[in-house]
Amino acid sequence: MAIDDKELEQLMPETSLNWTEDAKARMLNVPFFVRKSVVRGIEQYARDKSIELIDDEVVSRARQEREGEAIAKMQAERKAREAQPGSRRQYVNFAFYKLDSAFRRLPQAEIDAAKEEFINVLEDYDAQDGTIVLAYSTVGVRCDSEIMLWRISYEMENFQKMTTAMLRTKLGKYLDTTYSYFSQTKRSMYMDLFNPEHEEDRTHIIPGKAKYLFIYPFTKKREWYLLSKYARQGIMDEHIYVGNQYPSVKLNTTYCFGLDDYDFVVAFETDYPDDFLDLVMDLRETEGSRYTEKDTPIFSCTAMSIRDAVETLGV
């Protein structure tokens, strides 16, 4: 006879020790598909402690101890991963700013002093160990952004501290953040079968080697994640093959899952914008393109020194 969902929710697994009614009632709050495993774990805890009757207090102690062990194991595994060279993940931020035109009408002496103050803040953070600050101009190619900072750090708080310092400057008081994307590096989920020697370490980005940078946030449709891993790898094989036809374009993929509104932020570095345009057109024709939910806005950025990027603001 079939058991309906309501009966499953009220089903207590078979026990080998004595349980109080209160302890059993707590087990009914555990999802039924893991309830048997939880009951076995609590009974094993009781046996290890020579406890014959499982009551509410025993359930609480068992849960606390098991959770503590799980946390300790997770922390140990994290330390082991971070101890491996190049395995520590980086936080990445692409921040776009637009200057209030009122700043340009200030006396030139005030503008010059404000620029120096602002530039010093950016250069000071770029000089810190473990932090990279790269400046790009978007003047003339977008109406909603004029300067972009690509920031990379091992500590998320560095972005907050730096932004606070920027906003405290006189120029910063006239600066609006129009877009900001926050992500983290992570090893690719897919293998490059066409170029096995090309094992890009995506946990560690070394950026800024090309004149142009093209950035956009990217989200896959949920149907993509319902495909099997092998099906996704097969579709990505075509995607990767197309990408390998454009060696002049370097892809930096960072991951946003749970950190920001998108799945990824992709940043393409190249000295040849026409190659990037052709690459994107070719990728539109691949099977993987069917699963794209959103891949805009797209930003075309020109790499510059921090000082030169600030100068493009026209001040």
TrEMBL record:
Keyword Oxidoreductase attributed: yes
Record keyword Acyltransferase present: no
Class of enzymatic activity (EC top level): oxidoreductase
Highest taxon of source: Bacteria
Record GO biological process: chlorophyll biosynthetic process; photosynthesis
Domain Light-independent protochlorophyllide reductase subunit B-like C-terminal: 19-63
One function term, GO molecular function aspect: chlorite O2-lyase activity
EC number: 1.13.11.49
Keywords associated with the record: Heme, Iron, Metal-binding, Oxidoreductase
Pfam families per the UniProt record, alphabetical: Chlor_dismutase, PCP_red
Name the UniProt record assigns to this protein: Chlorite dismutase
Species assigned in the record: Nitrospina gracilis (strain 3/211)
Gene (name only): cld
